[in-house]
Amino acid sequence: MTDQKKKICLVIPSLHAGGMERVMSELANFMAAKDNVQLYLVLYGKNPSVFYNLPLNLQVHKPDYTFRESLRLWFTLRALFFLRQEIKHIQPD
Q: Residues 93, 90, 65, 58: is their CA dihedral positive or negative?
């Protein structure tokens, strides 16, 4: 068996206070406790902030732009490009 860590990429719009976000933070905490996992979190939504506590070994990737409602179509396409670029860079298993 190999000792190489599995790369796992979790993707969610944001980690505001909410049900889906709480489940994602619980999943991240559970998976980060394992030794054979390299964990990444990609946030891509309007406000990619983090409300929940996350493990220290989790690498968080956020876009470097702010969403503007007046250019919704442009920023939706930009978010898709950002997701594609980050996942390609991370190369999850």
A: positive
- Domains of the chain, residue spans: 6-90
Model pTM score: 0.85
Residue 71 dihedral angles phi and psi, to the nearest 5°:
-120, 45
3-state secondary structure of 43: strand
Q: What is the DSSP letter of 64?
A: S
Count other Cβ atoms within 10 Å, centred on residue 83: 16
pLDDT in tens, the chain (93 residues): 567 889 999 999 988 888 999 999 999 999 999 889 999 999 988 887 788 888 888 999 998 888 888 888 998 899 999 999 999 999 998
Q: Are 14 and 48 in contact (CB under 8 A)?
A: yes
